[in-house]
Amino acid sequence: MKYLDEFSDPDLAGHLVEAIHAATTRPWAMMEVCGGQTHSIIRHGIDQLLPEGVEMIHGPGCPVCVTPLEIIDKALAIAAEPGVIFCSFGDMLRVPGSSQDLFVIKSAGADVRVVYSPLDALAIARENPDKQVVFFGIGFETTAPANAMTVYQAKRLGVPNFSLLVSHVLVPPAMAAIMESPRCRVQAFLAAGHVCSVMGTAEYPPLAEKYQVPIVVTGFEPLDILEGIRQTIIQLESGQHELANAYPRAVRAEGNPAAIAMLQDVFEVTDRTWRGIGMIPKSGWRLSERYAAFDAERRFDVAGIRTEESAICRSGEVLQGLIKPNECAAFGKQCTPRNPLGATMVSSEGACAAYHAYRRLDLVSS
């Protein structure tokens, strides 16, 4: 792909690594918020190229991983209903609920379909007016505009048999929750460039000021991440705590105004529970009253769901950056990609999956 190679150029990467080493005089701990950045860091060994004492803390930036167990179990209950076509992106099918996943429900006869766009699910609803079609709408601010547009279109076109099971979460409140934890070690953040490309950067300067931490908006290729780390180190070493944009080719301060307008029309802010972390106030979206008729939780009777997490899975601590994946005694033993105990092992953006895929397999003794 044009321009891709230049953001992976090993010579340029070497120069950035040298600049990071030259600028660093003491230990620092920074968190990359996005799971896509985590995978890039581990895949390319970026964390192993940094000066001794500079630690990358892996954050809760995997939307599959933080989707609460209760929502997963509600998805399973809805998908098992007769007359339902349950649509989802493929990465949700193996995420474990309390006792099973969507693949198990599908193998038992449920009509569970993998789609590549929420608009595909809307098309299925129009083609099957005698069925209830549900799309599993999860993700951060990045995927929310497409889901909002689909609900908007369902209302405009008059498609009453379409609904959305919503589990959208917001990044800035999670960053605040991390900083307010008594166990927090984070001294700076690499902010997720794709989130900022949608929402802009206005929410981050108040966080940087309140918590006295640098926040550097960063992309996903090796040079993007190294440049983000370099800018972060310079701020930490000089005692600064400001927002910086190291991803200007994709991120503008104002974000995407059309996408923001659609989000404000279809969704409203609500409290959300994050799997492994708990409830974070005003950290998610739900459908606004104008679109409440398309809310799958209201349409289906799933209010009485009770959940139970694995007793040995420590994915919640991984998501909070309190431990590395291979510090969990179950990692690579009871918990593998074929038999995941938590979503962090099965998701394409999960930190446990990254450590397993790229052979960070030093196991903790049981």
What would the principal axes of the Cα set say about the shape?
globular
Helix content: 25-40%
Number of domains: 3
Report the major sheet.
Answer: 6 strands, mixed
Find the count of extended strands (DSSP E, 2+ residues): 11
CATH class call of the largest domain? Alpha Beta
Strand order of the largest sheet: 4-3-5-6-11-10
CATH fold-type name of the largest domain: Rossmann fold
Distance between the termini: 45 Å
The overall pLDDT average reads 92
From the helix content, strand content and strand pairing, which structural class follows? alpha/beta
- CATH architecture term of the largest domain: 3-Layer(aba) Sandwich
How much of the polypeptide forms β-strand, as a percent range?
Answer: 15-25%
**DSSP helical segment count:** 17
CATH superfamily of the largest domain: HypD, alpha/beta domain 2
Q: Indicate the radius of gyration in whole angstroms.
A: 21 Å
Catalogue the unreliable spans.
Answer: none
Characterization of this structure:
This protein is α/β, with parallel strands linked by helices and 366 residues long. It has three domains: 5-64 and 173-235, HypD, alpha/beta domain 1 (Rossmann fold); 66-170 and 255-299, 3-Layer(aba) Sandwich (Rossmann fold), CATH 3.40.50; 315-357, no CATH class. The protein has 17 helices and eleven strands. It has helices spanning 10-23, 35-43, 46-49, 63-66, 69-79, 102-107, 118-127, 144-157, 171-180, 193-199, 204-211, 222-238, 257-266, 296-299, 315-319, 343-346, 351-357; strands spanning 28-34, 54-61, 84-88, 111-114, 132-139, 162-169, 188-192, 215-218, 243-245, 267-274, 278-287. The strands form two sheets. Strands 4-3-5-6-11-10 form a six-stranded mixed beta sheet, with helices on both faces. The model has no long low-confidence stretch (mean pLDDT 92).
